Amino acid sequence: MTATTALKRQAAPRAAGPAPARRGRRRGRLIALLFVLPALLLLGALVVYPVLFSVGRSFFDASGTRFVGGANYTEMFRDPATLKAIRNTTIWVVVAPALLTGLGLILAVLVEKVRWATAFKLLLFMPMAVSFLAAGIIFRLAYDEDPDKGVLNAAVVSVHDAFQGTSTYPTARGRTGLLTQDRDGSYRTTASAGDTVTLPMVGVLPKDLPRDAAPARTAAGRKAAPGELRGVVYLDFTPGGGGKQGAVDPEESGLPGMTVQAVRDGRTVASTTTAADGSFRFPGLERGSYTVKLPESNFAPPYQGISWLGPALVTPAIIGAYLWIWTGFAMVLIGAGLSTLPRDALEAARMDGANEWQIFRRITVPLLAPVLTVVFVTLVINVMKVFDLVYIIAPGPVQEDATVLATQMWLVSFGGGNDQGLGSALGVLLLLLVIPAMVFNVRRFRQSQR
Questions:
Q1: Which residues lie below 8 Å from residue 112, measured CB to CB, with a gap of 6+?
Q2: Looking at the domain assignment, is residue 147 inside a domain?
Q3: Do residues 361 and 276 share a domain?
Q4: How far apart are alpha carbons 395 and 137 in whole angstroms?
Q5: Is there a single domain that holds both residue 442 and residue 320?
Q6: Distances 324 to 134, 218, 347 between C-alpha atoms, Å
Q7: Alpha-carbon distance 328 to 331, whole Å?
Q8: Which of 266, 299, 332 is the last residue of a domain?
Q9: For labelling, which of 288, 331, 407, 422 has a CA lying 20 to 30 Å from the CA of 275?
Q10: Please, is 78 exposed, middle or buried when counting C-beta atoms within 10 Å of its C-beta (0-12, 13-18, 19+)?
Q11: Which domain does 138 fall in, by range?
């Protein structure tokens, strides 16, 4: 055997080695592609194709038959409703993520010091389990302007009435021809010191009378002393019918708690409140004529609370509902980042004499900056796509005042506008606004993996 033949035999097995390895790699790639193929098909059918179709559709008119170029994009920035949607979306992007990140950070730090931290986190995270549809219905009821339905207005009205009080007889009005009504809603009549005056009122249902209301007949029969002005405010209505208008009948009730003023020369010289039988008295008056006045505060309509879903507050109200849902999400993510902080740095700061606020501001927040950034950008992406809450919570008359880009896109395309060309242009605008935030988030994830 020659040396050349021996070398060929030794080299033959080594030359055959790379071919099976390449075949194995190709087979592995083919298997991986087969596993990924269903996901790629779904991604193409549900994401890529709709995006490309919307981009193409945005260059056609409402019917989709005539090519209009960039006319839809021009119209988009001329339409007042679209400009309002862009303004509201800007408010959402600026306010909601910042508030959520701040609340999540504060709660994550505080929860660490709570004994039942897990239970507290669970309570705050529970709204995430509620769909946006259900949350919208809940807050639509909570924001109801009727205090008997809306829990927020019920609380506001209770606090207001506790400090400001409320009128007892909002539906009462003076008997026509016997009392004079002023422009401000008050009623008046004229009397002199030493007189007894009757002030007949109507418009109050017997069932709405206070429980301590007593018959007014006895009070009406009392004579005023010299220098005294007496009177009675009563309900000029006899249950079951009968009685005489302007006269105090035996079964007619006084109106307790009514404010009465004695006015002379445009100045209030005395003021009092009626007793259970509707009687009142002004002692120590000088001789002469007085105007006996029932101020408008007696008949003021009850305070109904705040119009949460009115044009001025509808956007902040919906943002409040969004905060309720997503605060737990921000708290949990930031809490996870907080648990990875080096404890030795915190303990070293405490040993050096730093207080908790200094530790929070100078150590905790800087170390959590990457996590806070990811949470903030993720919430920005989510806020730009908000639709359910705005569409459900905002009533029809103020829908345009609360609209954002997502709801405006739906309204223009399917909610009555029937202009899918303009709606597609709005969708493309929304996509262009979301892409920078998505790219930023992807880069942050790659940097954190490195």
A1: 335, 338
A2: yes
A3: no
A4: 11
A5: yes
A6: 13, 59, 34
A7: 5
A8: 299
A9: 288
A10: exposed
A11: 71-155+308-449
The reply to whether 439 and 340 lie within a common domain is yes
* Residue-by-residue pLDDT tens, the chain, 450 positions: 455 555 455 544 554 556 777 777 888 888 888 888 898 899 888 888 988 998 999 999 888 888 988 888 988 888 888 899 999 999 999 999 999 999 999 998 888 777 787 888 888 888 888 888 899 999 999 999 888 889 999 999 888 888 877 788 888 999 988 899 999 899 999 999 899 999 999 999 888 888 889 999 888 888 888 889 999 999 998 877 777 888 898 889 999 999 999 999 889 999 999 999 999 999 989 888 999 999 998 998 888 889 999 998 999 999 999 999 999 999 989 988 888 888 887 788 888 888 888 888 888 888 888 889 889 988 998 998 899 899 999 998 888 899 999 999 988 888 777 888 888 999 899 888 888 888 887 787 777 666
Tell the residue number behind the tokens 């006319």, with chain if given.
71
Q: Based on the domain organization, do 112 and 189 belong to the same domain?
A: no
- Chain-centroid distance, C-alpha 15: 74
Instruction: Provide the domain count of the chain.
Output: 2
Distance CA 293, CA 400 (A): 46
The whole-angstrom separation of Cα 376 and Cα 353 is 32
Residue that the structure tokens 């506790």 belong to? 162
* Inter-residue contact 145 to 308 (CB < 8 Å): yes
The residues, any chain, with a CB within 8 Å of residue 68's CB and separated by 6 or more, are: 59, 60, 61, 421
Assess contact for 298 and 259: CB atoms under 8 A. Answer: yes
- Tokens, residue 108: 């994550």
Rounded Cα distance, 98 and 109, in Å: 17
